[in-house]
Amino acid sequence: MRISATLYLTDETITPVRLARELEARGFAGLYLPEHTHIPVSRESPYPGGEMPPECARMLSPFVALAQAAAVTSRLGLGTNIALIGQHDPVDLAKQIATLDHLSGGRLTLGIGYGWNREEAADHGVHWPTRRALVRDRMALMRALWSAEPTSYDGEFGSVAASDVHPKPAARPGRALVGPRTLIGGAPGPRLYGEIAEFADGWMPVGGSGLAARLGELREVWERAGRAPEEPYAAVTAVVPDAGKLEHYAAVGVDEVILQLPPRGETDVLKALDEFGRYL
């Protein structure tokens, strides 16, 4: 089981360069970064789980920060948890993702989600009731651009002509889908499982009870969708670790655990890495 790390990386925290170097030197598998473009001051959307952390309004662009991390490492995995695909122009985002994956030697994992902040999404022109369909459409359009041969796409929310476009994401033999490994974040249930089986490679849940049963349900939907013999990848994120918890995740078939670091400066983050080192 891979052990990675995440934090709300901002203009006030440890830098991505320093953090990436420390993670790779200590043997962590990857660095995952979340995304918010902005947080409208006038907001009715409740933050999942309580009061919104102030760091949400200060987050660095995950793709720019991960590019810095890629440049100073050679083995460290790079990922988003999660990227708000519906809030991007898909042609431009496809180029950013392919470039980052190419320059990092295929180290990118694309964690995606549907978002929680209606006001933020509205500023990007997202109609909230159709956001899930929008994300599906965006992924299909980007995969058309990532295809080996020029491929057109005409969808509900966007289209692209068959185009000559490079770079391509790194090749990943044995996968049904083109592009980086894609994991969908979200609450468990038949709808999410169906979306994962349709256009992703696995699930990125926040840790919680009942994970063994939920992973079993996902695998059943996955097999019914004809995705076997591939297995859905499971990366549990925002984990505050202890030995028993990590042993449980390994036992139920979790592929990767993403530990939660504090959104602080170098001293506090390095102290947390020292404490987490026992779990590697």
Q: How would you describe this structure to a colleague?
A:
The chain is an alpha/beta fold and 280 residues long. The chain has one domain (2-279): Alpha-Beta Barrel (TIM Barrel), CATH 3.20.20.30. The protein is 36% helix and 15% strand. It has nine helices and ten strands. It has helices spanning 16-26, 62-71, 90-103, 118-123, 131-146, 190-199, 211-224, 243-251, 266-276; strands at residues 2-6, 30-33, 77-83, 108-112, 153-154, 159-160, 181-184, 202-203, 233-239, 256-260. The strands form two sheets. It has an eight-stranded parallel beta barrel, surrounded by four helices. It has a two-stranded antiparallel ribbon with strand order 5-6. Helix 1 packs parallel to helix 9 and helix 3 crosses helix 5 (131-146). It starts with a strand and ends with a helix. The mean pLDDT is 97. This is LLM class F420-dependent oxidoreductase. It comes from Streptomyces polyasparticus. Residues 17-240 form the Luciferase-like domain.
Structural class: alpha/beta
Mean pLDDT: 97
- Oligomeric state of this protein: single chain
CATH architecture assignment name: Alpha-Beta Barrel
**Overall outline:** globular
CATH superfamily: Luciferase-like domain
First CA to last CA: what distance?
Answer: 10 Å
Series of secondary-structure elements, N-terminal to C-terminal = EHEHEHEHHEEEHEHEHEH
Query: Total strand count, please?
Result: 10
User: Compute the gyration radius: what is it?
Assistant: 18 Å
Spans of at least 5 consecutive residues whose pLDDT stays below 50 are: none
Largest sheet: 8 strands, parallel, barrel
Amount of beta strand? 15-25%
Helix content: 25-40%
CATH topology annotation: TIM Barrel
